[in-house]
Amino acid sequence: MTLDSTTLDTLITIIDRLKDKEGALLPILHAVQKALGYIPPEAVPVVAERLNLSRAEVHGVISFYHYFRSTPPGRHTLHLCRAEACQAMNARGLQSHAKARLGTGFHETTADGAFSLEPVYCLGNCALSPAMMVDGQLYGRVTPQRFDAVIAEWEKR
Amino acid sequence: MMAGPPNGLTVYVPRDSSALSVGAEEVASAIAEGARRAGVTLTLVRNGSRGLYWLEPLVEVATSAGRRAYGPAQTADVPSLLAAWRNGGTHALDLGLTDELPYLKQQERLTCARVGITDPVSLDDYLAHGGYRGLRRALTMSGAEIVQEVTDSGLRGRGGAAFPTGIKWKTVLDQGTRRKYVTCNADEGDSGTFSDRMVMEGDPFVLIEGMTIAGIAVGATRGYIYLRVEYPHARVALEQAIGAAEAAGYLGADVAGSGKSFHLELRIAAGAYICGEETSMLESLEGRRGEVRVRPPLPAVEGLFGVPTIVNNVISLASVPVILDRGAAYYRDYGRGRSRGTLPFQLAGNIKRGGLVEKAFGLTLRQLLYDYGGGSASGRPIRAVQVGGPLGAYVPEADFDTPLDYEAFTEIGALLGHGGVVAFDDTVDMAEQAQYAMEFCAIESCGKCTPCRIGSTRGAEVIERIRAGVNRDENVALLEELCDTMLNGSLCGLGGLTPYPVQSALKHFRADFGVRS
């Protein structure tokens, strides 16, 4: 597969805007993912060539960081915290509930394309555990009931 | 305090992300809408959080006696709140004057002095509350004098390693007039910690000021804040504050008219826990995989792009302005032993009154858990407390009277780290927690060294077998040996400290592993 011309233009505009920054690769990858929702594998050689890096180096960076994704996400990305402070407040129960309610596992997208479910290790909301984030919006004290209410609200968007 | 307009109301509703996570935005909108309908002139300030999270959304109103707190407020409470504020009536959510709340009144807020009080992105508000006084004084001093002041304050790295900040700065200063950097490690990934976030969302200028002082002190003209991507609200606050500081000449080519330059840029991390390790963060800032570097050379000698670099945590840097403003002795007079000053402790997990407690080192864990925290949220006994993040030991009740200072915690085989305190009640399965610690290490290992990369996966498997009752005694012995290998053979703290939660769980909660104590 190759990138369509609009996507390629977007990509090249981003790279040319940021490539002279010190340590430009992460800012570029963030900007690409923000614009496209993910970093298409076909973008790797384009980024590599314009930064004078090998494709392996660019791929290696994308695959190292949990936040970068190589496949399109659902309409919304739901980050569910798995870390200790949330565990102390039934995060394990909430995880099971979330997976059952959405019919999906971690790193997967629901069949209707509404949600991508991602684990996260701390959202810094540890005094109001358990926590989750939907498209950058943070939720605290998430009981299974509250989870369902939040999901129902985002499903409409 | 900001005076309200005549016959008007001045109301504070936090923009802190934790407050937003339980409805602060909706409450703020409802107050604005209610005031508009009633024809009340409203000044709505979006402050940081006071850190009394169980009371969020905590709404405050300005009165002649000071700010008065109401909480936890929901949108349904807004009509009656507005009526009480306008007519001077009572309200069920009235908590009294904010400054008189015991949780807050008994704290010693030096680093977090302005958090929750000011409008975080208003430079005028920052200046009106003592902001940039530290930098003003620093600009009258030589670099060596500034570094000496920080050394004399006794400040140690608040990210967890507790290395003396002044010594680190001196090493960078001594590298001559080469290109240098100041970097702030804002990749606060430890579960149970949120003080970095609170400062960045609630008082971003104090971090900017601290970094500027660091740059002036060691002769670095560029700084980077490496912020975790999980903190979008902190990002917005920092971007606004950096913009305001640049516009007012506090950042840029001529810092506060001194002729010295300091440029600051925000960089966003990408969800790798390991990038909280300093050399891994530097790799990431350079645009590479966040793999740990072998030390030496120290970052202070060969850091970002191979040049001398300060790497400090948010709280360390945010403590510098008050040290420069009030003097080293003022700061050093707080604390005990070799742990000087204050630490913003974070009470989290299964705790009734979770939040931020900035206190001088020396109060006990029990005081923190019960006097401040009020015991568990579930009402059941607190059985184990993980202090210092996912790499910190699980502390049993027998050790709750340990004073919170770096050395006292080392003595009980634990870590104070970044001051995160996560409480678990008696329903916790400590063998499950130990297995999780190994699994977390496996997920987050950078892969560079074998004890961490392989040891974590084997560790999780061994604990799983112990929990299943397979060759229990042999597997416990194997686990202990594996922990020893990871502890002594890993390149950095991830592999090197993951044994802490595992060994402490095994030592103090043996029954959970099905082995005799």
Beta strands of chain B, count:
16
Major sheet size, sense and barrel closure of chain A: 5 strands, mixed
Poorly predicted residue ranges of chain A: none
**Number of distinct helices of chain A:** 7
What is the rounded distance between the termini of chain A? 31 Å
Shape descriptor of chain A: elongated
Question: What average pLDDT do the residues of chain B reach?
Answer: 96
Report on the architecture of this protein.
The complex is a heterodimer of chains A (157) and B (517). Chain A is of the alpha+beta class. Chain A folds into two domains: 5-64; 76-155, 3-Layer(aba) Sandwich (Glutaredoxin). Helices cover 46% and strands 13% of the residues of chain A. In chain A, strands 2-3-1-4-5 form a five-stranded mixed β-sheet, covered by helices on one side. In chain A, a hairpin with a 2-residue loop joins strand 4 (132-134) and strand 5. Chain A starts with a helix and ends with a helix. The termini of chain B are far apart. At the A-B interface, helix 2, helix 4, helix 5 and strand 5 of A face helix 1, strand 12, strand 16 and helix 17 of B.
What keywords describe this structure?
heterodimer; A: alpha+beta; Glutaredoxin; 2 domains; B: 517 residues; Rossmann fold; Ubiquitin-like (UB roll); 4 domains; 16 strands; 15% strand; globular; disordered N terminus
